[in-house]
Amino acid sequence: MKKIDLHTHSTASDGTFTPTELVEYAAKKQLAAIALTDHDTLDGVKEAQGAGEKFGVYVISGAEFSTVYEKISLHIVGLFLPENSAEIKSRLAYMKNARLTRNVKMLQNLKNEGVDITLEELKKNFPDSVISRAHIAQLMQIKGYVGSKNEAFDRYIGNRCKAYVEKESLTPEETIALIKKAGGVSVWAHPVLCKLSDKNLEMMVKRLKGYGLDAIEAYYPTYTPSESKYIKTLAQKYALCLSGGSDFHGSIKPGLDLGTGYGKLEVPYNLLEELEKLRG
Ligand code: AMP
Ligand code: MN
Ligand code: MN
Ligand code: MN
């Protein structure tokens, strides 16, 4: 059976494999297709698709958007996103700029806490990346302010810590509409990670379906078999397609592998065929 992975990250966001390395690795792992779904950017897609032709892997252009609905953080993956859509481009540019403003504020807060990190240093260490807290944590470790990235989150930049600044986010409604308008396919990523009760999870599925959601991730490395089964039941009830992937980030998520997750993940190729039918 042909295998795929529809949720992956590269150095264009917070992954540690370059787009080319990621695709070469996908070929080595005998994956027929992967979607590159970096946070808030399509910057790695062109390189990944070039590598896809070289290594014989079908590379789908994607991005993972951070959205918020009444303080609940929801990640929406867009698949088959055209790089030349004016709306997508302008929205991603806006997000990039909002991140820059936020990073400047967080660096100032860190300075007040005695941690001296500059934007220039971040750019030098992560030249092609959309800079997130993951990069700030990494640099704090490199510079010896913390012993681990987790410590950086626990003491400084975690959601309730002094240096934390909230990220500007779209609503899921805007995001799903944006993806649809560009001819893409929208997927609610790792719904189980939202830790909603069964009732609230189902209400959210119903709400997102109302906004035009196409699919939901039923295959994800941390799911138990019963969680996966429950998501499939909800998908059937609300006429949603299934999607899934490893959420591979390279070495920043130790033990989590491309395609296979923590060892048991298997995303069948036929999901991709169903998702492709929904392209605009
Ligand atoms: P941001 O989008 O800038 O808020 O950063 C979010 C990223 O930081 C996520 O994609 C994770 O890679 C990383 N992250 C968030 N929370 C933690 C944590 N507690 N420990 C380690 N990494 C984290
Ligand atoms: Mn990430
Ligand atoms: Mn996510
Ligand atoms: Mn992800």
Envelope shape: globular
First-residue to last-residue Cα separation: 28 Å
Strands, count: 8
- CATH class call of the domain at 3-85 and 185-276: Alpha Beta
Bin the strand percentage: 15-25%
Show the helix and strand layout:
Elements: E1 3-8, H1 19-28, E2 31-39, H2 45-55, E3 58-69, E4 72-79, H3 86-112, H4 119-125, H5 133-142, H6 149-157, H7 172-181, E5 185-188, H8 198-211, E6 215-219, H9 225-237, E7 241-244, E8 267-268, H10 270-276
Parallel strand pairs: 1-2, 2-3, 5-6, 6-7
Antiparallel strand pairs: 1-8, 3-4, 4-5
This protein binds adenosine monophosphate and manganese (II) ion (3 copies).
Residues 9, 14, 39, 134, 249 line the site of one manganese (II) ion (MN).
Structure description:
By secondary structure, the chain is of the alpha/beta class. The chain has a domain at 3-85 and 185-276: TIM Barrel, CATH 3.20.20.140. 42% of the residues lie in helices and 18% in strands. It contains ten helices and eight strands. The protein has an eight-stranded mixed beta sheet. Helix 5 crosses helix 6. It is globular, with a radius of gyration of 18 Å. The two termini are 28 Å apart. The structure holds adenosine monophosphate and manganese (II) ion (MN) (3 copies). Adenosine monophosphate (AMP) binds at residues 14, 132-134, 149-150, 153, 158, 167.
